[in-house]
Amino acid sequence: MNGQAWMLLLEGAWTTVWISGIAIALGVVIGLVIAMVRMARIPFIDQILVLYVSLARATPLVTLSLFLFLATPTFGIAMDRNTAAILALTLNTAAFNAEVWRSAFLSFSREQKEAAMACGMTNGTFFRRIMLPQMFTSSLPGLVNEMSFLIKSSPAIAVIGVVELTRVTNRITAVTYEPLPPILAAAVLYMLIIGALLKLQAIAEKKANRLAM
Amino acid sequence: MSDAPAVQIHRLSKSFGGIEVLRDVDLTVYKGEVVSVLGSSGSGKSTMLRCINWLEEPDRGTIRIAGTRIGVDDKGRKMNNRELAAIRARTGMVFQSFNLWPHLTVLQNVMESPIQVKGMHKDEAHAVASALLEKVGMAEKADAYPFTLSGGQKQRVAIARALAMSPEVILFDEPTSALDPERVGEVLQVMKNLSAEGYTMIVVTHEMEFARAVSDQVVFLEKGLIIEKAAPEKFFTRPETERVRRFLELSA
Lengths: 213, 252
Fold this sequence. Notes:
The complex is a heterodimer of chains A (213) and B (252).
Chain A: H1 3-40, H2 45-58, H3 61-71, H4 81-106, H5 110-118, H6 123-153, H7 165-176, H8 180-207
Helix pairs in contact in A: 1-2, 1-4, 1-6, 1-7, 1-8, 2-4, 3-4, 4-6, 5-6, 6-8, 7-8
Chain B: E1 7-16, E2 19-29, E3 34-38, H1 45-52, E4 60-65, E5 68-69, H2 81-88, E6 91-94, H3 106-116, H4 122-135, H5 151-163, E7 169-173, H6 181-196, E8 201-204, H7 208-214, E9 217-222, E10 225-230, H8 232-237, H9 242-251
Parallel strand pairs in B: 3-8, 3-9, 6-7, 7-8
Antiparallel strand pairs in B: 1-2, 1-4, 4-5, 9-10
Helix pairs in contact in B: 3-4, 3-5, 4-5, 5-6
């Protein structure tokens, strides 16, 4: 592989990182919102969210990406490849994150809430100051797990023409007729990306306050 | 309303699933008083305490904290979350299972409510919390996390946390029941000190000696009814009902 091939690979890696990064950031927040709304058990809305979570978890990313890219124009929504890719990844990861957050909600101790109420905290203050910091710490492993799954399944967006890290290897092979070197190089880059993610998790866990069990 | 009683309970009733846990309970607690609430398990003691700060919503009756009605406003409208929080801030509660916030240090546990609820400046809250931890003998553990503490230490921190809001009354819900026997004394000692300092306290307890030594009033609950209410000397030496006589014999 020559220098130009490496440049192409790095560009592909960057595409994987920024598209996944946006989907991860959106997915973590949207997942939290879905979990919060589901905890409120609002009739009808709750059923819709259950349906969404089930569908999104059951749909392969390739199918979802194709559907969004091909079907949305018929509804009059013009979406470029990158937007469709981000939307597909976000819809997918938000559903999984919603379940991670929801289990954190369900396992949160009622006693801590009573202590906060007894001190005069409003529900909002309790959630922001007492519940969310602990939910974040306890959910972090599950969330990071889902983030690494998302990055590793992101080659699915190649199907709608996004030139990300896996797709770019095909392009290099088309010139060099040697498929193995770019694929191995891409594998190393994936490992570096996931490794950086895990490093961030370790730092976050160190900074996050400890939890007593 | 500065001369209103700290807590006024009038005809408080509460049922759980068709079972009446409290029936027309009346109780007035004046400023500086310590009231011990005795009774066997399931008599409604804890439920009564939890109704005072509306952790349980009563079915009937009124409760006033320093003259202000909790739960329902003067027009009979149910209080919203914010209004409830504002009046709960004037009470403190100490739980059987401590209920400290595990992600905060001892000092932060005590500082949190004054800062978040009262809007106290951080430096002032730090000074207040440090003084309270000194009072309960936990100053040297200020930076420790709750999981490193013994039960008695946790409970003393929980008491400091309740005091930090300068409450009109502190509600103790079996504060020593979850403790190792050798840790009970240190918590009771702190509570004795508080009563000597003039804090208003309602204490649900099984500690007879404490109730006798510290209380101004002893209340005995049986199946949701207050069947005896007396000064401790009278309650422990000349109880009026057969039920209390038997209870005292069994607890002796």
